[in-house]
Amino acid sequence: MRTLYHYPLCPYSRKIRLILAEKKLDFSAEIERFWEKRPEFMKLNPAGQVPVLVDLNGSVINDSMAISEYLEDAYPERPLIGEGLLQRAEVRRLVGWFDSKFASEVSVTLLMEKNIKRYISMQASSGPNSAVIRSAQSMVHSHLDYISWLVDRRNWLAGDDFSLADITAAAHLSVVDYMGDIPWDKHPIAKDWYTRIKSRPTFRNLLLDRVPALAPSSHYADLDF
Amino acid sequence: MRTLYHYPLCPYSRKIRLILAEKKLDFSAEIERFWEKRPEFMKLNPAGQVPVLVDLNGSVINDSMAISEYLEDAYPERPLIGEGLLQRAEVRRLVGWFDSKFASEVSVTLLMEKNIKRYISMQASSGPNSAVIRSAQSMVHSHLDYISWLVDRRNWLAGDDFSLADITAAAHLSVVDYMGDIPWDKHPIAKDWYTRIKSRPTFRNLLLDRVPALAPSSHYADLDF
Which of A76, A136, A208, B150 has most Cβ atoms within 10 angstroms of its Cβ? Predict the structure, then answer.
């Protein structure tokens, strides 16, 4: 059986879960508390990060970008990176935007402060840093504006077709939405785009995720939010 | 003329300069002080980051991963990502290791503290944070150990052939080496690997880089260091 080691609120794990679902590839999802550095897990991925994919043939694929590209090449039937040099570059540019810029400014920062920090000892402080949380919450607006700007001109983020750009953006936004930090009422165009993705059958599984001691926002799983 | 907007000590920019050189593609290199958010530059890349590639046909490609994949597809003659699903996944895994893990633990952290911070106003502090610098300097050892472990078993980082994994690792390490923070004497196997890359004609240009108010380490440009 294909196996994905993941953490429910990890946006990079969510991205791979969505790709696997969109490509209709069955997999067993194993929750990995990656911060515990379990020896068997560290053998699979010396970087100690999720997601890790073990494919049918036993091949171990690490790093969410490497897994995305691997799945696109190995299972090309439902393409998600698109066709043509420039279209593929545009999809990957937006993947980079959300995996790097949005992650450091908003999603991964909030995830660390509100969830992961309770499991690991941090050098500087022990509890959530409210100044860091407020800063990340304020940064989300410019990204929602950018999403709105893009989908005002295109059908999906990177162009006519649903792509890995939409999957990556939605994976990150869904984590922030779980924590209740997306001001949807101020960004109706971005909300409309997210509603379209949230309604896809492939997204349903993510809406069932729960982690200990951090309840999702009241509208998190609601398709009419 | 093909144009690359870059910053001399940006490891992601260095990666693209090395790819272009390895693929023997001419380009004009324009230094971009990206933190100034020059309006014409922000039009090219709303993320405000280097590198940005403007290719011969005027196409603008952003995000170092997107540029890498674009160059590999557009100019496949001298392949750098390798062949076969698993080989390509291994190259990309190591690219991710250095672009994410090494960057946040060592290279980008040191670059921010020792160089970029003097140009931008930081919320928390104005000068370099010596505790952060010491932490990054201590983290470099485990990465050099990992490089040694890999090249003890393989000819190059990802296998038999020189690849984007070597380019990416060397791009990040070279920035740290400029700042004098690589303890080469304690890591002879990693040093041997770096010497092989540093001796390539494609690397020469990086060894000529200088930035204001931050002199390179005495051995930075020395091939026999």
Answer: A136
